[in-house]
Amino acid sequence: MENSDVTLRPLKITDVNAAVKWYTDEKMSRFCTWDTFTTEEDAITYFLQNDYNHPWCKAICVSGRAVGLISVDPFHGDDRCRAELGYEVSSEYWGRGVATQAVKLAAAAVFAEWDHLERLEAAVDVENPASQRVVEKAGFMKEGVLRKYYLLKGKPRDAVMFSLLRSDITSS
Fold first, then answer.
1. What integer pLDDT is reported at residue 2 of this predicted model?
2. Taking the C-alpha atoms of 12, 13, 17 and 22 in order, what is their torsion angle to the nearest 10 degrees?
3. Which of 10, 60, 69, 158 has its CA 20 to 30 A from that of 102?
4. Structure confidence at residue 31 (pLDDT)
5. From the CB of residue 92, how many other CB atoms can be counted at a distance below 10 Å?
6. By the 8 A CB rule, do 22 and 68 touch?
């Protein structure tokens, strides 16, 4: 797949149809904090409440078609110099470089938009090596394992912390 085929754009209300497909895919939801949705109605509600109105959430598109989404959550107060990256790509597009290109595009965009941002983080489940490879290929540095860092489906999980600094982008 050509990297130029992957683009980011603001979410559209019509992306809800693609989102329903992602949110009902058990492969995709395995490492997501939400459970696989069993009804279209629940998936639509989640999309509208959590993604569509998110302050920095973009559709990941391949040749103009939404195949996932990527978001950046800023920290606040004294921690406003950092933000956390999250993404999800339809399982039918795994292994094609889509997520890696989307992460690169999102990182460049958010560093350009937020001049106060110095650090972009990605906390990746220790049992998700594919996602670890995505952020490493996108230029993030592995920092270490954070034990029992977050809850996944109600259970404490270890996460590998990755970061990309503004200086990493400007020096390359």
1. 58
2. 60
3. 158
4. 67
5. 12
6. yes
